[in-house]
Every structure is written in C-alpha cells, then in structure tokens.
Amino acid sequence: MVHKGAHVMKNYEPVVGMEIHVELKTNSKMFCGCKNDPFFAKTPNSYTCPVCLGLPGALPVPNRKAIEWTIKLGLALGCEIPLFSKFDRKNYFYPDLPKGYQISQYDQPLAVDGKVETQTGVVRIHRVHLEEDTGKLLHTTVDGKKVTLVDFNRGGVPLVEIVTEPDIRSGDQAKAFLKKLHQIVRYLGISDADMEKGSMRLEPNISIRPVGSKELPKYKVEVKNINSFNFVKKAIEYEVGRHAELLTQGKTPVQETRGWMEGKSETVSQRVKEEADDYRYFPEPDIPPMSWTSTFINGIRFQLPELPDAKKARFMNDFGLNAYDAGLLTETAVLASYFEECVSVAQSVKEEALTPKKLANWIINKKVDMDAVLPAALVQSIIGASEVTSISESELETVVQHVLQDNQKAAEDYKKGKEQSLMFLVGQTMRVIKGKVAAPGVAEKIKRMLS
Amino acid sequence: MNLSTLTIQEARRELQAKKVSVVELVRAYLERIHIYDKNLHAFLTLDEDGALAQAKEADALIAKGISKKLLGIPVACKDLYSTRGIRTTAGSKIIDNYIPTYNATVLERYIDAGAIIIGKTNGDAWGHGSSGENSDYEPTRNPYDTTRVPGGSSSGSAAAVAAGFSLIGTGTDTGSSVRLPASFCNLVGMKPTYGRVPRYGVIAMASSFDTIGHMTRTVYDNALVYEITAGPDKRDATTPNVPVPEYTKSLGKSVRGLKAGIPKEYFRRDGIDNGVREVTMNAIKKLESLGVTVEVISLPHTDYAMACYYVLVPSEISSNLGRFDGVRFGQQRNIFGAEAKRRIMLGTHALSAGYYDAFYLKAAKVRTLIKQDFEKALEQVDVILGPISPTPPFKLGEKVDDPLSMYLSDIFVCPVNIAGVPALSVPCGFVGNLPIGLQIIGKQFHEETLYQVASAYEQETKWYTKVPTL
Question: How distant, in Å, are the alpha carbons of A29, A69, B288 from that of A66?
Fold first, then answer.
C-alpha cells in the first residue's frame, strides 16, 4: 500500500541509509568455542558455555577467523582497513544480553570508508565492524501464564554490522544495493546471508528532504522487522510518503523506531526515543587491542576471490558474452565456476563448435543440476545431443538438394541400381551436416528425394 | 605436627614420608576450624565431605609413591573463585545460593598439583574493600587481635592461614587485596604481574587491574605455589606467552649487588604511622646489611594515583556487575551492599556521555603516566621497597563511616595495580603485637627477584615464627 502522501513526493527526495547485520558462518562463536549453528540447534540452550552465558568469571577470547573474514568483507567493499582496531563494551540491560554488555566496536572499527556500485548508483559504506549476537527471546504462555523464554544458542554468534552513508535515494536503489551486498557476502563464503534464517538482517534509516537540498535532514526513522529486499523497497516507499505528508503539513516526522507490518504493507510506531541511549562505551579490557601490519592486510587482500563485477567483465571480455548472460552466469560464484569448468572441458576436447556462447545458452535455458551433472558430463551430453537432433527436416532437405545437384552422376548411378552411389551421397551429406543426423536417416531422405 | 606453625614444605615432607596421612591432616585442620573459626569468621562455606574425599585420593597416590608439588596440602579458597559444585558467593548476598558449573583455571592448577580445597573464604563483597568489613556476611577478624581487621578484600584467606586453618589462602589483588591482608596477618602475599596468572573463572572486579594471588606463611611456600599458578591460559586473552621460571630456585641466592629504590613520595613525614615507619626502615636497613644498595627514587605521579584508581576501577566494576541481573542466577540488584552501590554509581557516572572524557579518558591517560613512573624507576633499580599500609591493622568500625579515608589507606599499594607490576608483601616486624609487612615491587614478569630479596630478608628475621594465640 502506498502512503497517501506519495503524491507530494515529487517535491522531496528520500535520504536513506542502511544498517545490515550479517551472521558469519564460522565453526564456533565469536568469543568462545561453542558451536555456531543457532538456526539448526535441536534444543534451546544447547550450544552454551560459561562464556556465552555470561557466568561470573568467564572471559571472552576472540575468534580469529571472524576477524579475518570481517577484514575480507571490508576489503571486498572497497574499505580502508585501519592498522589499529579494538573491541569496546556497549553497556545496557536486556534479558537476551547475559553480561549486561555487548562486546562490539565503537570508535575504531575494523573497516571504514568503502563503496558499492550498482546500476542505480554508488552507495558509500561508512563502516564495517564486528560484534557478538544476542540470545533470542520467545514470548509465549506456560501453564496459563504469559512468559518470555530466553534461548542463548544465538548468544555470542559473530555478527558483522555494515553501515552505509545516507546515499540511497529510492526503494529500487535500496533493493539493488542489498542484492549486490548479498551477492558479495555469498561470493566470499563468509555467511549464508539468509534472511529467513536471520543470518542477514536489514534496517533502513529513512528521512526525506526538499529536492535540491544538500543538507542532511534533522530527523530519521529506523524501520525494523523487514525480512526481504522487496519489503525494504516497499517500506521505504511507504515511509517517504508518510514523511512527505507530515512535512507538507508543517510537521516533522517523529524520530523513532517503527516496525514493518507485512500483512498491511505499512509501518507502525514501536519505540520513541526521547534521548539517545547512553551505552557508556569503553575499551574492552579483557581483549588486547589489534594491531595489523600492512603485510598482513595485503595477505588477506590476496586471498580475496574474484568479485562479481570483475568476473562479469571478464566473462564478457574473454567469452564474448553479453551483459545480461554474463550477469546471470556470475549470479553466484558456484554457477560461474561451473560454467568456466564447462568452457575449459569443451576446449580440452577440441570441440570448437561448442563455444562459450553456446554453453551459456544451454546452461541458462535448461535447468542444469550442478550437483548431479559434472561439467565434463554436461559437455559430453551437449555434444551428443547436437550430433543427433539439432537439424530440422527442411534443413536436411536443403542440404540433400545441394548434394544431389553437385553430384548428378552419382544420383543417376543410384537410380540405375548402384547401391554404392547411395553410400557416396550419404557420405557427402554427412560431411556438410557434420553428423547431426544419423546415417540411416540421411539415406532414407536421399532415397525418398530420388524416387 | 603443630598446625599453628606448619608450612607446606614441612607438610609435604611429613606426608610423603607417610608420617601422617592426608586424611589425618585434613581432619586435624577441620577440627581446628570447628573450634576457632566461630570467633574469626574466615570461612563462608566448608566442604568437609569433598575435602575428605580428596584427601583419601591423595593418600592413595602417596601409597603408590606418587609425589606432586601440593599433594595433600589444604587450600582455603577466596569466594571470588568459581568452584564447581561448591557455593560461590563473592562475599555477597546477591549470589548467596549460586553454585558454579565450572572451576576457575587457577583452581584446576591447584587441584592438578594435588591440593585439597577445604572451603570458601570470606571477604569484602565483590572484592570491594581493604578491611573485610564490606562483606555482606559477618566480617572476618584478625587472628592476632580479634578487635581488629585482618585487611581485605582477601580477609578470610589471610585469617585462615594465619590461624592455622589451611596452608594456602588464595586471593585476588586489584588494589591491595592480597598484600594488605598478608601484611596485617603476618603472611607472605604475592600480587602477580598483571596477566601472569589466569583470571578465567575468578569473578571479575576490575578487569584490567585484577590479579590472582595467594598467601602462605613462608617465602618458600609462596614461591612453590606460584610455580603452579603462573602461566598462560588460552581461555584468558590477557595472559601472554611468557615462560614460567622455577621460582623456588631464586631462594637463597645472595642479594649482594642488587639495587633497591625507596620512593621519596612514600616516606613523607605525615604519610605513615611512626611505628610502621620505624619497622619498615629497620627492614630496609637489614637488606642493606645483606648487600643491597638502597637509593632514593621518585614516583612523581603518586599524588594522582588514588584519584586515577577510583575513576577507572569503579568504571570497570559498574560494567562487570551488570551480569547480576537476577535472570539466570542470583537475587535482585537492589540488595547490593552499600559499597557495591557506591562503586556502581561512581563508575556509571564516570562512563556516562558528557563525563567520559573528563573522567574515564583522563584517568586512563594518568594511568599511563603512573605506569611510566614505575618503568623508569625500575630501569634504575631492581626492586622498589616501601610500606604496605600507612597504619598497623586498625580496629573494626574505625574507618567504616569514612569511605574516603578507607580508600586513602591504599596509597602505597594501589599504584602497583595501576602499573601492572608484581609486588610481594613479606612480614617485617610488629608494632606491639600487630603485624607489619614490607612491600617489594619489581619489574613485570620478574617475580623471581622479589622472591630472592624476600627470602634473604626472611632467613635473617624469621618473623613467620611469631604466630597468633587463638
């Protein structure tokens, strides 16, 4: 549902930033050795220990891989990696936060100042930092009483937070940006980034300003509870309409957190913050700060896989594919790799007719089960199929006509009863159609056309 | 065997020679506790069954001819240490029914070395105090004079060793809490280099100040225990990979040629009780007579140390106590004691938006200056000598109404935690019948020098033989 204020939006432009949380799929949690698998845990509170339960005396020990993966993500998003970084404590009380503080990063995050480019423009990345996830609350009824249950399986899971600059100017741009970010995260293999499972969470911060203004609006509205890119687009479009109506009436939208209501396609107020929360951030004393050398950072940079944009450009350049096909084939790193393997196999069996373009068509148009069919097998089956069926009746007739015209003596000889001449004519035809029709079928065709 | 004078060294000898069994020894200690602790209030929880079971196992090992550094040695464990299956209160009513599901790393080390954990000792709740009077339970008394404090916050552990209830009293030292009770109870108390002994499993007070120490009758005993507790732990990211020397090997080495510094800021006219000054100076002279060169040094930022400490420490306390929310364990937060509430509020204020820069950040910068004071001084000298307390053990109730005066009594000991350097308290005499301790401060990770100096002094004076009459 589009907000009734949408019609006045032509005077305003959206000013939107995104906050995205991504759960890293490391084997263990961020600060302890517990298994990192909250979504598939069989029972609540089964992947816990004194550390992630916040028991007295427990201490955090950082997960090295989670840190390296965060730096990797920062590099993939074009960020600077400062050579000094640290963890900080973010202090607040909530039942899903067992220590009464979350170990996060405040003023010296692992990565800063990057950018993501899409068809709809550039979105700058303000920062990328690493923190621990909270437990999960479940509001339910037990023995007739309303209770809230806490499950700490998710508590302590490594969480990357990506914050953009407020560069997004439309719901469509938000969608394109998120798709790109999602693709990059999956390319790096650091997270499943599955919104349904909660391993990727999206929060737009939305405001509007008069068209032509260069100043940041003095308010912003945070929207939570959005679990698809499409809903991000819809939520932004709804909100900017709502803000436009208010502003036109001379009112400023309240700075607050709103929830996206999927069923009604609208947002509702959840929590009004009168003042900013004071988290009393201070450096985490239990974890020594991190000091990198540029050699170390370059080492991680070296380990980056080829990212989607670069891969797409290379496919267009090396394989002669158009942008659309190259885009489809580089959708995921797995598919791109499969395609390249097929090209490589086709080259090694010297099947020149099986061009990358033909392979692309085949893979794009037919549903190939990459798990079931190895590239080599796929290539063989394509070659086989081309040989037997990919020439039509009329095509065959045309070819035979030409062969008979060029070989009139042989045709006459066959009509006089010389069987060998038929074989000769079949052979000539086969040379032209390169075996795309089996010999008996060709022979039949010639006989019929000579009768 | 006379439990009021027994040392680890003697006990190990007797046990291994099977002159007495571990079960007999532990029974004797438990009996002594039953008789005398009702006046001293050293223990909050006694684990008699557990202790006797451990004792039986120890005897079985000895029968097989197996020997371990602390096999059969009873330990009184400060109630900040997590002990699996044994109630752990931190001296507070908030977790008066909390039973940990795991052991602190250092406790595992004691157990692996064969020690017998007999119970959990009293102290200022959460470690907040220097006298033991901030315990949410009946405060511990000084065995040398039960009208006086034993020092804190490891009060019960100190009283337990001094009164002959155990051979080791474990503690934590965040500003004073091992050295001060050690000095008030005529014991040797070690405050390790920060990060030398793992904090995993010990209830945190101020994470960047807390150290895991211990008290014994003699220097040898103390060094032996340190060989077991010191060393890195992969569950504590603040324990660096520095090798652990055999501390007992430094004992008996001549101290001739070693250089000791006396901070001029510590010996000002009005800063110390006359009796303490006299006893301390005599101790320093004794070391001079053994060949130690003594010179005056300066720790120029001494006057800012207490302010620095009382901004940074409550800040970390306010955060560390956040986990006691009553959701998973423990009682409601409103029953925190007065001192805990004081520190939580101080710390929350110092970290608040608008105040962080003026308080926390500023204090953190001062901390670096104080740390540099010690580093510079310890480039000139091998050890720094000084008093532990400006006064002898004071009377119960004397400082309770004046928290600031209580804080200021830590002036000689707190800067050591600010700097993260190690320090030992060793008995150096009496004012009347009240014990006084000498503080020996050294370079980070060079505790062997502290033991060397302490041992040389102890052998000449043997103050540990003057035990309290219970």
Answer: 9, 5, 55
**Chain A: closest CA distance from residue B304 (Å):** 21
Question: What's the predicted TM-score (pTM) here?
Answer: 0.90
For the CA atoms of B107, B109, B110, B114, the dihedral, rounded to the nearest 10 degrees, stands at: 130
Q: Which of A56, A101, A285 sits opposite B203 (nearest CB)?
A: A56
Pairing of strands A136-142, A121-132: unpaired
- Length of chain B measured in residues: 470
Query: What is the phi/psi pair of residue B161, to 5°?
Result: -70, -45
pLDDT value at position A367? 77
DSSP state of A343: H
Instruction: Compute the distance between CA of residue A283 and CA of residue A285 in angstroms, rounded to an integer.
Output: 6
- β-sheet bridge partners, residue B296: B262
Give bridge partners of residue B384 from the DSSP assignment.
Answer: B261, B441
Q: Can you tell me whether residue A201 is helix, strand or coil?
A: strand
- Cβ(B437)–Cβ(B388) under 8 Å? yes
- As a whole number of angstroms, the distance between CA A199 and CA B333 comes to 34
How far apart CA A397 and CA B184 sit, in angstroms, is: 113
Active site residue B153: yes
Which residue of A281, A282, A284 to mutate against B (max B Cβ within 10 Å)?
A: A282
In this predicted model, what pLDDT tens digit does every residue of B431-444 receive, in sequence order? 999 999 999 999 99
* Spatial CA neighbour of B41 closest among B98, B124, B109, B130: B124
H runs (alpha helix) in B138-273: 155-162, 179-184, 219-229
Please tell me whether the peptide bond between B154 and the residue prior to it is cis, using omega within 30 degrees of 0: no
> Among the options B82, B177, B315, B425, which is catalytic?
B177
Closest CA to A385 of A359, A415, A411: A359
Strand order in the sheet with A158-164: A111-118, A121-132, A158-164, A12-23, A200-210, A221-224, A256-261, A266-272
Euclidean distance between CA atoms B163 and B160, whole angstroms: 5
Q: Please return the burial class of A133, using the count of CB atoms within 10 Å of its CB with bins 0-12, 13-18 and 19+.
A: buried
Nearest CA in chain A to B235: A61
Answer for the pair A25, A181: CB distance below 8 angstroms, yes or no: no
pLDDT tens-place string over residues A172-228: 999 999 999 999 999 999 999 999 999 999 999 999 999 999 999 999 999 999 999
Q: Is B431 helix (H, G, I), strand (E, B) or coil?
A: strand
Interatomic CA distance for residues A75 and B305, integer angstroms: 43
The reply to whether B425 belongs to the active site is no
Cβ B312 vs Cβ B362: under 8 Å:
no
Q: Which residues contact B314 (CB under 8 A, 6 or more apart)?
A: B342, B343, B344, B346, B347, B350
ipTM of the shown complex? 0.96
